[in-house]
Amino acid sequence: MMKVLNKQIAQEAAEWAIRVDSGPLDMMAREDLSTWLTASPAHIEEFLLASSILSGLSHATLVERTGAHDVLQTANANVFSLQTEREPSVQTAPAIQRPAKLRRQTMVALAALCVLGVVFWPLLMGNFNHTQAPESFRTTLGEQRTLQLEDGSLIHLNTDSEVSLSFTRRERHVDLTRGEALFDIESDPDRPFRVTAGDTVAEALGTVFNVRLTQEAAVVSVVEGKVKVEQIGGPRFNTPVFTSMNPASPDLVLSVGETARLEPSTTIIDLGETEIQTIMSWRERRIVFERQALGEIVSEFNRYNEDKLFVSDNNLSARQFSGTFEADDPVSFVMFLEQHHNVRSVTVGRSIYLEPRP
Q1: Which of 159, 131, 126 is nearest to 145 (CA)?
Q2: Looking at CB atoms within 10 Å, which of 12, 21, 226, 266 has the fewest?
Q3: Half-sphere exposure of 233 toward its Cβ, with a 13 Å CA cutoff?
Q4: Pairwise CA distance, residues 184 & 209, whole Å
Q5: What is the structure's pLDDT at 179?
Q6: Do the beta carbons of residue 144 and residue 55 sit within 8 Å?
Q7: Residue 200, beta-bridge partner list
Q8: b/e per residue, 314-329, with b = 16+ CB within 10 A?
């Protein structure tokens, strides 16, 4: 039975050594390795043996992969000095001879202390929120891209947008610093998924939702499931907010088809309902607007195109229009205005100026 057990430990140690050799371990993997190592000194011994055998794994590689070998290196130096015979400079009492097996167990224990005390120091100290530096992803003008996260969630970035990801064992956090993104979230009750956009925080409750950040406001729209919305340092919506699925709640919880527009550092919250197709339209590179001011429509087109639209008249900028257009085709929109809404255009280089027809 002991041989079978040792064989199993050796196999598990080899598997861990291969994982370490393949690249840096994430926080959860390091915790799993910590749990396995602390189960028995034999695990430590087999792990060190397997690591040294596997492709001649060097001390420097272990430093890079586990972050712990600085101390192991020091510990090895200490062990070496204990094993080297020296001529005493002064007369000393006879050394006490310890059995070889005991010396071997002591060395294994020292190695275990080195590995567990440094590789997993943040874990042992309870620093479960330790994580690597946030990762940033961005899109350029007219570009769209999809990110698949380590938990299986998806982030669809719209044009001229940027997000910063910070994942820990206790939460998944995304900071939308510019533009717009659609989030398709894998549920994990132990690791809530939160998106910050300016002063607004949207927490997914197993859902698909869209967040748009402009200079004026953050807009959160729900495609599937529910999303809890709050403002950083702002009110907790103690005055009940009424939505179709959430008749009265101290928190603002949006359901499918609902949209909240939150202005920075204010208590202004506009609630409304939006067609799912409208929320998702940008994924098909379409601009859908209904009774929307021309100034806002122009800004939307300009997010996608090098050719920029400008409205030279304030009254015209405030006029409302409805329609659906290809985001990459502002010229068709200009022709629509000229043919049906008494607007004329003047093109100067890559700029198109809109003004009322006299």
Answers
A1: 159
A2: 266
A3: 5
A4: 7
A5: 95
A6: no
A7: 197, 231
A8: eebbebebeeebebee
Specify the pLDDT at position 265.
Answer: 62
Pairing of strands 258-262, 286-293: unpaired
**Cα–Cα distance for residue pair 15/290, rounded to 1 Å:** 58
pLDDT confidence of residue 111: 52
Query: Do 286 and 269 touch, CB atoms closer than 8 A?
Result: no
Q: pLDDT tens-digit profile of 178-205?
A: 999 999 999 888 899 999 998 888 999 8
Contact 39, 9 (CB under 8 A): no
Q: Crossing angle for the helix pair 330-340 and 294-302, nearest 10 degrees?
A: 160
For residue 133, the model assigns a pLDDT of 63
Q: For residue 146, what pLDDT is reported? A: 95
Report pTM. Answer: 0.61
The CB density around residue 37, as the number of other CB atoms within 10 Å, is 21
3 state SS for the chain: CHHHHHHHHHHHHHHHHHHHHHCCCCHHHHHHHHHHHHCCHHHHHHHHHHHHHHHHCCHHHHHHHHCCHHHHHHHHHHHHHHHCCCCCCCCCCCCCCCCHHHHHHHHHHHHHHHHHHHHCHHHHCCCCCCCCCCEEEECCCCCCEEEECCCCCEEEECCCCEEEEEECCCCEEEEEEEEEEEEECCCCCCCCEEEEECCEEEEECCCEEEEEECCCCEEEEEEECCEEEEECCCCCCCCCCCCCCCCCCCCEEECCCEEEEECCCCCCEEEEECCHHHHHHHHHCEEEEEEEEHHHHHHHHHCCCCCEEEECCHHHHHCEEEEEEECCCHHHHHHHHHHHCCEEEEEECCEEEEEECC
